[in-house]
Amino acid sequence: MKSFFKLPYLYHFFFEFCIVGWLPPTVESGKGIRGDFPDSSYRYRIDTNKVAPGEGGFHLHIFQSDMEIAKVNGRGGFVKTHKGNILRKPSQLPRPVLRNINKLIRYVQKNFRRE
Prior knowledge:
- The chain is an alpha+beta fold.
- It has one domain (26-111).
- The chain is 26% helix and 23% strand.
- It contains two helices and six strands.
- It has helices at 7-19, 95-111; strands spanning 33-36, 42-47, 59-64, 67-73, 81-82, 85-86.
- The strands form two sheets. It has a four-stranded antiparallel β-sheet with strand order 1-2-3-4, with helices on one face. The chain has a two-stranded antiparallel ribbon with strand order 5-6.
- A hairpin with a 5-residue loop joins strand 1 and strand 2 (42-47).
- The chain is globular.
- The termini are far apart.
- The model is unreliable at 1-19 (pLDDT under 50).
């Protein structure tokens, strides 16, 4: 008896809905794009406004409990301070969150239209 579920189908389902399902459908908005990282209390906001040349076209703000804890530019560089607050270094964030930050940065880089 043949199985209804084929390996490529399961892989596609798992990849689309379990791994990248949390990524936003669009990456540009005048008000920023907000979302939650999977399986954590961390959230993000993608900003594409007021970005200096050389910063990769966007900023990624990372929040935990409504407090900004990290900011990453579009090239993947972590910002040390923002609005007078000292932000966390990559080594101070949990590994799963760092992996998701890197995944989100690559996703935005791929889908961001630069003018």
